[in-house]
Amino acid sequence: MELRTRINTEMKQAMKDKATARLSTLRLINAAIKDRDIAARGEGNENGVDDTELLAILGKMVRQRQESAKTYEEASRFELAERELSEIAVIEEFLPRKLSEEETISALEEAIAEVGATSIRDMGRVMAVLKSKYTGQMHFGSVGPMVKDRLSG
To answer: Are residue 62 and residue 108 in the same domain, yes or no?
Structure first.
């Protein structure tokens, strides 16, 4: 099922179940998607964003909430941190399963072979392949240094 349809179906179910916290998070997701759709139309893409871009939006929302939760915990605002963590749980339902470290290394080796990368200059092409195949399944901030190590070594 298309990601956008799944989110809307879950939102309707949350309304029926009167799950206010879940409904609130699903509405935030929808608002972020609509904002990006509007921006895409401004760029000439009349169809809005595709599932790959939706996964990127959801990933960004999770990272934002992780940072907020950490900040709240450092300030001893545990009730606010808890709310952020519950939003993360709802958002992550729509993201694909995260790859294990072994799977990430395997995907990285595969991408390097696919591109025929031999030096650090090929890093951008390797990252592009990884992002096209594994958006939402790996954290590219930690994968970047791994690619760099493989190509410079």
So the answer is: no
